[in-house]
Amino acid sequence: THLLAERQASGNPIRCAVIGAGKFGGGLIVQLAQCPGIEAAVVADIDTERARAVFASCGLGERVVMADSAAAIVDAISAGRLAITADPLLAAASDAVDVIVDATGVPEAGALHAVTAIDAGHHIVMVNVEADVTVGAALRRRADAAGVVYTLVDGDQPGSGSAVSAAPSRSSTNNKDIAVDRFMMVSKFPMWELKVDRECSM
Known about the structure:
Layout: H1 2-9, E1 14-19, H2 23-32, E2 38-44, H3 48-57, E3 64-66, H4 70-78, E4 82-85, H5 88-93, E5 99-102, H6 107-119, E6 123-126, H7 129-146, E7 150-152, E8 163-165, E9 179-188, E10 191-201
Parallel strand pairs: 1-2, 1-5, 2-4, 3-4, 5-6, 6-7
Antiparallel strand pairs: 8-9, 9-10
Helix pairs in contact: 2-3, 6-7
């Protein structure tokens, strides 16, 4: 769409941190690789080789670097690279990303990742239904208080008829000024179709 095309042309894509490179997370990473204007800039997985393999499968292997610190993630993205880390909290708190996607399926982990992301001023897309049914209401209240978006996917498996809304991008000049490119991801078996809905500011 034209909004994502503009972001691509300006060299300022929406940068996502995807936590969990399994079936859902891996499919999302591959689909984002085909969408100009948005990218999986950081992938966190305890199996870093699995994350590396996902990037390699979509032709991005040469851009990947390992990152074991917050500074390393920032440096990688600033250099136009894609970062892989084994530490999901580094991804969730990184100043270099706009939105966090938790696709772990572990409720305790998802809750911790979401709290870390929200407290860092990031929007969170919760694929982790196990976390949402446990503490989702509290996470939503915390996000509302912080002025960020907490949103779900409707169905946590690729190919289920569903929708994801609210994909954000934070201004690089002021963390309190959040420019939001709202988008909708509509599941299209077996991949995801990404559509820009509208642009607004918070």
